[in-house]
Amino acid sequence: MIRLSRNSTLIKNTSVQKICLRPFLSLKNSYQNSSALASAAVLPEWYFDTKVDPSEPLFKKVLIANRGEIACRVITTCKRLGIPTVAVFSDSDAQSLHVRMADEKVHIGASASKDSYLRMDRILESCHKTGSEAVHPGFGFLSENTHFASLLQENDIAFIGPPSTAIQAMGDKIESKRIAESARVNLIPGFDGAVADADEAVKVARDIGYPVMLKASAGGGGKGMRVAYNDDECVKGFQLSSQEAKSSFGDDRILVEKFIESPRHVEIQILGDQHGNYLYLHERECSIQRRNQKVIEEAPSPFIDQMTRDAMGQQAVSLAREVGYFSAGTVEFLVDKNKKFYFLEMNTRLQVEHPITECITGIDIVQEMLRVAKGYKLIKSQSDVALQGHAVECRVYAEDPTKNFGLPSIGRLYKYEEPKTSKVRCDSGIDEGSEISMYYDPMICKLVTYGCDRNEALNNMTEALDSYVIQGVTHNISLLRTCINEDKFRAGDVTTNYLYETFPDGFKGHSLSSTDQNYLSAIAALVKLSQEYLYMNKNIAKDLNKKISLAVKCNGAFVNLEVSKCQDGFDITIGDEKFLISNFSPDGLIDCAVNGNRIPIIQLLSRDSGGKIRLQYLGTEFDLTVMSPRSAELLQILPVRPKPDLSKLVKAPMAGTLVEIALKVGDVVNAGQEVCVLEAMKMQNSLTVASDGVVKKVNFSAGSTVNKDDLIVEIE
């Protein structure tokens, strides 16, 4: 569902001397108010200026063959246009938000995608059952399945997307490169065909020259992609990529091409109709990635100039025209440091990051997909497409960013509050109480912020991330916030290697300075005192009339402090440092000031009667313990319990399915050797052993489902 901040007042941006309309209004009322708003703003209006034309009847009913946030996104536009919708759902999605938002719902199978969202027969049956005239596939699942598009056409059901011929041509990365060459699109050097096996992949890689990219021919979204720098990596990468491709797309063909090191990932959003008209809606920068999956996107790119933008846009349109494309699509390019760009692939569907393009153009891309599928011409010409302001999208995932930049997490969201700050759009398919399942992608929300310029959009994103309350699963807010405020990112100096170059030893979360440590210790002390005063039915802000000494264990260190009430808040003394905390309130979001200066929002995540308090600060969670000074003295002299040796154990880092077990009891293993391949949330993960030894016990077999921390293999 698209949730938007309610503030729609006009603000003056004095740095650029333009009037900006806060662009995020309620979509359900947006188009009725468009004429009044149009005269008030010169920058993009978030009501989508492609209004409903009564002379253009659209579909009587649309079925969304998808789930989660993209299903909610499509339903939102359909509701705005007065089109009834049908949701399909699996066992685990019975109570999901997209099901509750739709006008009708149909159960299509078990939780696994292959038994539900990938069942073309059941989706077609649902169309007949509900009288749906059209199907919107969203992205993923069947969105780029040429057989599905053809099947709908054979049954006189409109596919809200491109023609099946274009899906087939562009979905096959081998064929798409040949078509791109014919359309005079810049290409990456590579092997013109699929490789038969790992041995041939090595031969091709040697001919091209390492490093190479092994890529699923039918792939997308980072699935089935590996980079290899030598023969061993090529063999292993071929095996993992082909397995992942088979699981995700039902097609295990792999191609090999030259890997361009340190490029930027820039893509062009296009729209085409069935009458030969085409538009490019400018570019999106998608260079912040891990495992070839995007994490942060922005529009426009801070690197691309107008000449390059137009050249990329014209080549994207040329490719679409060459293949007879219509509907929404995205042409992806790799761009080197000299702004020379190379065709990467074409995504023949609605892209995950389409909201940021909508922000800077004012065009509802889903609405245009509906109109084009019905046979209408595009409303705008190229000269009508605006490029106003700047938008940033952070993909908020249920995952642990300290483990390979994002190990998926599952669980139930027992507390969930999206940010209510200005110029924020939240595209999500969950709400409080929703479950993040092992069966699907772990995305929680696409968090989008807008600004008159890039700096304003990034500042808005920082505040939004600080205000985002997510409890019940591990999430990647800490990584997102750190990147948004990192110097190279702020300067726009990024490549697809950004995460690995910025955090060469992996992401560890925010490192507390001594000042940060003092702030958190003081806040934790006030939280503890507030809890005690509440228990005594007293108000700490009124009744704290004496100086109290406390000790706080923060980040492994002990901080001694004194707290006293004063007229403007609380006086805190830590060593020789004294400061004043004002506007303190022990609520979930602690938005206070230190010595008159507002500090970043601190979230109170949990607390107990023993003084243990968990706070989120600058995106990272910290555990603190508040106690008496005497307790702190005693705690510091207690012996430290030794940590158990886990190097002989291979445990499941997440819930998933074991695709392969490479060992049996009695096998000799070396540190770093692969033990098994675990598939979770549509990704293949290779698990290795940490030390040499002999396999003592294997507790699971290939095909088994495991939970987080299940012991898979034991070494002796």
Question: Can you list the strand order of the major beta sheet?
Answer: 30-33-34-35-26-27-28-29-31-32
Q: What is the name of the CATH class of the domain at 514-637? A: Alpha Beta
Mean pLDDT: 88
CATH topology descriptor of the domain at 514-637: Glycoprotein, Type 4 Pilin
| Helix coverage percent | 25-40%
What's the helix count?
A: 19
Structural class: alpha+beta
β-strand percent reads 25-35%
Globally, the shape reads globular
Rg for CA atoms: 27 Å
End-to-end CA span: 51 Å
The counted number of beta strands is 43
Low-confidence stretches: 6-47
Second CATH tier, the architecture of the domain at 514-637: 2-Layer Sandwich
What's this entry about, in short?
By secondary structure, the chain is an alpha+beta fold. The longest helix is centred in the C-terminal third of the chain and has 22 residues, at 514-535. The chain is globular, with a radius of gyration of 27 Å.
Tell me what the structure shows:
Among the domains are: 62-160, Rossmann fold (3-Layer(aba) Sandwich); 189-258, ATP-grasp fold, A domain (Dna Ligase, domain 1, 2-Layer Sandwich); 514-637, Glycoprotein, Type 4 Pilin; 649-715, OB fold (Dihydrolipoamide Acetyltransferase, E2P). Helix content is 27%, strand content 30%. The protein has 19 helices and 43 strands. A 10-stranded antiparallel sheet has the order 30-33-34-35-26-27-28-29-31-32. It has a 9-stranded antiparallel sheet with strand order 1-22-24-17-14-13-12-15-16, sandwiched between helices. Strands 6-5-4-7-8 form a 5-stranded parallel sheet. A hairpin with a 2-residue loop joins β26 (548-554) and β27 (557-566). α13 (454-467) runs antiparallel to α14 (477-484). The chain starts with a strand and ends with a strand. 49% of the residues are buried.
